[in-house]
Structure formats: structure tokens, C-alpha cells
Amino acid sequence: MGALAALSLATGTAACSGTGPPEPSGPQAAPGPNTVERPVRLLGDGSTADTGPQPRQPKPRRMASGEKPPQFVVFSWDGAGEDSQRLFSHFRKVGKKYHATMTYFLSGVYMLPEDKRALYEPPQHAAGASDIGFNDVRGVRDTVEQLRGAWLDGSEIGTHFNGHFCGRDRGVGTWSPAEWKSEIRQAVSFVRNWKTNTGLKNEPPLPFDYAKELVGGRAPCLEGQHNLITAARSLGFRYDASSAGGRQVWPSKLGGLWDFPLQDVPVPGRGFETLSMDYNFLANQSGTTKGDPSRREAWGRQMRDGLLAGFERAYHGNRAPLFIGDHFESWNGGIYMKAVESVMARICTKEGVRCVSFKQLADWLDAQDPEVLAKLRRLEVGEAPRGGWAHLGDARSSGPRQPTPHLPSWHAPSSQEPSTHEPYESSQGDDEEEDDKPMRIRPVLVRPAAG
């Protein structure tokens, strides 16, 4: 009964707006009482429960003719485990402060303790194999607590799948659709059976049916999307965020799913762009998670200002959704976490901006006139319609805002206050010839710290 009592949930209204009221075409939370009793129907071993529709969900509306689109921004997190750094819980607080819902791509093995690792049977690998390890009982409990709270906050729980196998040697890019289906089903199973696998029988359940809530994910290292989409579509997914690099243009569908790629954004002081993820800035800065301490402050400003530059050219241009990917890690002394928090503080509070989850963005896109979306897709990076949004679809646009040289980028996957906005200054040595090219390194694989 204690677990059931713990699911007497408070719900309210929330919209990813600025300080003013939300625009009519943007997501808006439906009005309701401040507190309601949510019915609880335990599922399986009681690890999850059906408690009804997710609270704090916006109700999308089709835009009127000539209406300016909201500026959507999606912050997403790969792995999404709570460890001793407490970054998951920290950024939930940050999201509430700045009215942002987010997408947490949970790695399924973070719901599985080390002594039960043999339950994971990864495609093309021995049972119990994982390139990011597993968790411990305390880590599972802490992660469940944050997943529960995040869903009640209105955020989305997606998937980063399980063992994070990359590369040509049996990595996810070599998997068949059938193998991807197995991987997805196992990820769901680890969530639906965490009580059995940890012995934490008296903990409250997760307040959602993961098999129904799961509608999208991001593949490790952005590999294997073609066969993943085939498998994911058959299992009810609505979008995929695994494209190996994209541009700041309006999304389209790929294989029947919305395609939400990480996007190339400027790297201030350098002659190229990189993907909108913390690790990609790291790859083109230190190339290691423990770089030169004397350069870290400048690196953090560089990521912050690069993301802000990408935001500004969309906000004042084509209004294409901006996708920002991150990890709950303190790489290079936590500079990337500080940068992300600063960016969130600056942009989620602006007029017309909606900081939402991928699922909420898919809901909004599905509600729009397909012809209007087609016109939006014809706008180039940084372009706004000539003569204003009432003239969307005219022959020419107003031209790009602050064009940046575009080079193909490479994906290197996977308790602070916002920093002040200081001018970006290049570090010493940034004028070397090799600094004008994106650095290509193998990803550093991480796991939640035992805590």
C-alpha cells in the first residue's frame, strides 16, 4: 500500500513559454486542478503502473494561415542515469526553473544490476556484454526515482537502447531489423522488471507503461539508423533521433518516422561547424574528458556561444526546431553542463520559444497542415520568408542570417548556476592549421558511477 500511496500525484499546468503567455500555436498545457488523485493499476511485477495520461502535456493546435511558428528547442540526454554526480536531478530542477520539458534517452542496462548482467543478450555479443557496463542496486533505485519525477514533470522517457556497441566489429550499425527489435524489447523489459531484478519490492512503481510511452530513441554513436527505423516503426515508434548529422531546417519523415537529427551549429573562432552535442565540442577541443584546465573556461564559452549562435539564426530566420544533445557527465570539469544550463536559461525564457520533448514536437508537427510544413522545409538555414510569415511560400526568402561555412561533421557520442555571458576569446594555439578542421576521435564510453 505504501507504493500505491506514493502515487497520489499532484498535477498542474506548465507550458514551455517565456515570461509571457504561450502563443496559441505552441504547446499549451490543458487547464486543470492543482491536485488530483491518479488511479493506479500495477503492471507485471509492479515495476510500472498505468496511472492514466501523462500530466503537464501541451495540447497542440494547427497554426493559422500566415502565423509565425513557435521556436521549438529540444534538450535531450543520452544514457539518463542518476549517479553520484546527481546531474539528472539537478537538470530536472533547471528544467522546472526555465519551463522546459526534455527527452531522457534511457540506457536500458542502467536498470539492470551487475549481478544480473547475464539477463542481457545483446545481438552478436555474448550474454552479459556491454560497452557501458551495468548499474548497482542503489544506482537503479536512484535512476528510477528520477525517471518517475521526470515523467510527472511532463518530460519524455525515450531510449538509448542498451549495450552501446559501436563500430564495424558487431556494432549497432551491423545489426538487422530483427536484432534491433530484440534490443528494443530487452530495453523495455529491463524497465518493466527492475523490481524483480533488484529485489526493491517496496519501492513505488514507475507511473507509466513503458511499452506504450516509448515512441523514440537515439542509437549509440548515431549508427544503424536504416535498419533501426524498420524495427522501430513496427514497434510503434513515432520518431528517431539517430541521423548522423543534420542541418537547421524543418524536420521531415524518414521511413515513416519523424527524423530529428543532431544539427550542425557554429564553433566560434573556428572555420567549421559541429554537431549540437556536448561530446562533439569536446572532440574538437581537448579530445579527452580531462583536458588542459587552463583552457576549460574558454572551451565552455565556445560551446555556449556556438549553441546560442545556432539558436539565434533559427529564431530570427526559418524558426527550425533546434536539437541539443548532452550527457550527464562532468567532462573537462563540468564546463559543458554549465554551458547547457546557461543556454537553457537564455533561450527558454524568450518570447515565442517552446522548450519541449521530442514527443511533444512530434505531436505538434502531426497537428499541422502538411502543405504548410512543406513550405517551411523549403526555407534554408537562417532564412525567413520575404515580407514576413504571411508570405510563407513566396518565391524567395529574406536570405540567410549570419551564414557559417558548412563542413560535414562527425559524431563523437557518448549544482551550477548559469554563467555570465562573457565575450568568446580564442585560446592560445587556436590559430594552428589543424584547428581549422574537425577533429575525429573515437568516443569515450561511460557508465554511471557507483553511488
From TrEMBL:
- Quote the InterPro entries the UniProt record gives: CE4 (IPR052740), Glyco_hydro/deAcase_b/a-brl (IPR011330)
Region (Disordered) spans which residues?
A: 13-68, 387-451
Instruction: Determine the domain of life of the protein's source.
Output: Bacteria
| Single Gene Ontology BP annotation | carbohydrate metabolic process
Protein's UniProt name = Secreted protein
- Organism of origin is Streptomyces mobaraensis (strain ATCC 29032 / DSM 40847 / JCM 4168 / NBRC 13819 / NCIMB 11159 / IPCR 16-22)
